[in-house]
Design goal:
Largest sheet: 5 strands, antiparallel
Radius of gyration: 14 Å
Mean pLDDT: 84
Number of helices: 4
Strand content: 15-25%
Structural class: alpha+beta
Length: 129
């Protein structure tokens, strides 16, 4: 199994065009956390999330967030799958492109997460020279 994974959409969610187009619900979940100040670290257009990213399985997801996901066009199965992946992850890194599109990568080992984040920090510090 690779160190990170980004699942293909398993259904035909009715997503609206925009910054999350073609992305699974995990991207919107992470974006909402960034907007609420929930990222562990931020660097330029990147944000780092260390585990735990989501509440443990026994705790329900916030109803407002679930409503936002459904309003964005995601189906219940894709929402549940993304939550399960985030709950089991060592962490995630999000990126906002110059065009404003959001993407993410979920990491299953802390070592890979931290190594990748260090690479982001080095790359982003080089952009300011």
């Amino acid at each position: 199994m690779p160190e990170w994974w980004k699942p293909a959409m398993q259904c035909q969610c009715r997503l609206h065009p925009g910054k999350f187009e073609g992305e699974p619900p995990a991207t919107l979940i992470l974006y909402e956390q960034t907007m609420a100040g929930g990222a562990d670290e931020e660097c330029g257009a990147y944000a780092l999330y260390r585990a735990p990213i989501m509440p443990v399985p026994e705790e329900p997801i916030d109803n407002t967030l679930r409503s936002d996901l459904v309003s964005a066009g995601y189906c219940q199965k894709c929402i549940a799958d993304s939550i399960a992946r985030l709950q089991g992850a060592a962490g995630a890194i999000t990126h906002q492109s110059e065009q404003g599109f959001e993407t993410h990568e979920i990491y299953i080992t802390k070592e890979c997460l931290e190594t990748t984040w260090e690479g982001v920090l080095v790359a982003e510090s080089g952009d300011d020279d």
